[in-house]
Amino acid sequence: MIGLKTTLNVIDNSGDEIVCVVKNARPISAASQASVNAVKVRRGDVRRAVIVRTRKPVKRPDGRIIRFDDNAAVLLNNKREMLGTRVGGLVSADLRMKGWGKVVSLAPKVL
């Protein structure tokens, strides 16, 4: 479950490595919710992000349970477009159904 003050790994090439959740409307447990994050490298810079992997197990409709090793995100600008041009690492297939097809298409592997 991802809540306030949770640290996330950034898996795109936007230049940041770790972000911290500073604001969200509700506790986030799905792999494709958007939240507002602050970049740890530059103080005061707040960016939006799409969470692409969570440690919390997610049950798929076909009965499979998917759990990742870490919490990861892709950073967005104010227009909800990706800051980076590449995505490194595994992403959840649920993102495509939620409208984040560009993130899925740039990822090397989809689970």
UniProtKB/TrEMBL annotation:
Gene Ontology annotations for the cellular component aspect, listed alphabetically: mitochondrial large ribosomal subunit
Gene Ontology biological process: translation
Keyword check for Ribosomal protein: yes
Pfam families from the UniProt entry: Ribosomal_L14
Keywords of the record: Ribonucleoprotein, Ribosomal protein
Keyword Ribosomal protein set for record: yes
Alphabetized GO MF terms: large ribosomal subunit rRNA binding; structural constituent of ribosome
Stored InterPro entries: Ribosomal_uL14 (IPR000218), Ribosomal_uL14_CS (IPR019972), Ribosomal_uL14_sf (IPR036853)
Family (UniProt): Belongs to the universal ribosomal protein uL14 family.
Name of the featured protein: Ribosomal protein L14
